[in-house]
Design goal:
Elements lengths: L5 E7 L2 E8 L9 E4 L6 H5 L3 H4 L5 E4 L16 H14 L5 E6 L1 H12 L4 E7 L27 H9 L6 H9 L9 H5 L5 E6 L6 H10 L6 H4 L5 E5 L11 H12 L5
Parallel strand pairs: 3-4, 3-5, 5-6, 6-7, 7-8
Antiparallel strand pairs: 1-2, 2-4
Helix pairs in contact: 3-4
Length: 267
């Protein structure tokens, strides 16, 4: 585990948005913003990779609304709303541009930033997320039926109760995640028009169809013969033996792929 150099709460309306800063404060280059998935938090999603990610770069990690140490609001969860919270957090921290690594729900928020707040993002890693609803496998619909008793004894339930300012609210969070509003998705033109180079990562047995990940790559200028035309700025990584919930399990592989991509153009 990485020990944060500082922690705090950013006031975002009625939200007290918890954040951590990791890595050397005087590190050169663009800070890296970490955005976790639904039902996870900073530690659960990124704990295994944080030491490697923050070894020589500044890292900003945050808990979304209703997750980890951040309070909940009488507001549905949506990629647009969560992205608005992130924009406010960066303003609070006086950070003008970041690299982004977003997983699942965090990946959807990263896409929202890339499309609607392009000035904030230099490079982005979007993991285990689809840009249209049809990119998800049909079994994912079961998320809408989740009950607390189904996850009792798991790290997600234990971490929620240990950290949340309202530990009794786990079923409410599950209900909001089941109704998560990612919107109608992003059009092909919007994905093609993203200015920042992107790396999509997905497990080979993930919740996202592999064909969808390849479609994203093609829209970003990939799936070419790089020996003849050059390696595209946007890329795709498929992690073997990897499901949606264990997307960070191949720690060394994840770190190598992500840091190699993010290091381009730095220093």
């Amino acid at each position: 585990m990485s020990t944060p150099t500082s922690t705090g709460y950013a006031p975002v309306g009625d939200l007290q948005m918890y954040y951590e800063l990791h890595g050397p404060a005087d590190a050169d280059g663009t800070p890296l913003l970490l955005l976790h998935g639904g039902l996870f938090d900073i530690d659960l999603q990124f704990g295994a990779v944080l030491p490697g990610l923050s070894a020589d770069r500044r890292v900003i990690a945050t808990d979304f609304q209703g997750h980890g140490r951040t309070n909940d609001l009488d507001r549905p969860l949506s990629s647009a709303a969560l992205a608005g919270d992130v924009v406010a957090l960066l303003a609070h921290l006086d950070v003008g541009q970041v690299d982004v690594f977003g997983f699942s729900v965090g990946g959807a928020v990263a896409l929202e930033l890339l499309v609607n707040h392009p000035e904030l993002v230099r490079r982005a890693v979007v993991s285990s997320v689809s840009f249209t609803p049809d990119g998800m496998r049909p079994e994912n619909a079961a998320v809408g039926e989740m009950k607390v008793e189904m996850i009792e004894g798991t790290p997600m339930a234990d971490s929620y109760r240990a950290k949340s300012p309202h530990p009794e609210g786990l079923q409410g969070l599950l209900d909001k995640l089941g109704a998560f509003d990612g919107g109608p998705g992003w059009s092909d033109a919007q994905i093609e028009g993203i200015a920042a180079p992107t790396l999509m990562t997905v497990g080979d047995c993930d919740a996202v169809h592999l064909e969808h990940a390849v479609r994203f790559l093609r829209l970003r200028g990939g799936d070419v013969n790089g020996d003849f035309v050059g390696v595209p700025a946007s890329q795709l990584a498929v992690f073997p033996g990897t499901t949606h919930f264990n997307g960070m399990a191949r720690t060394a592989l994840v770190l190598d792929v992500v840091t190699t991509f993010l290091d381009v153009g730095e220093g």
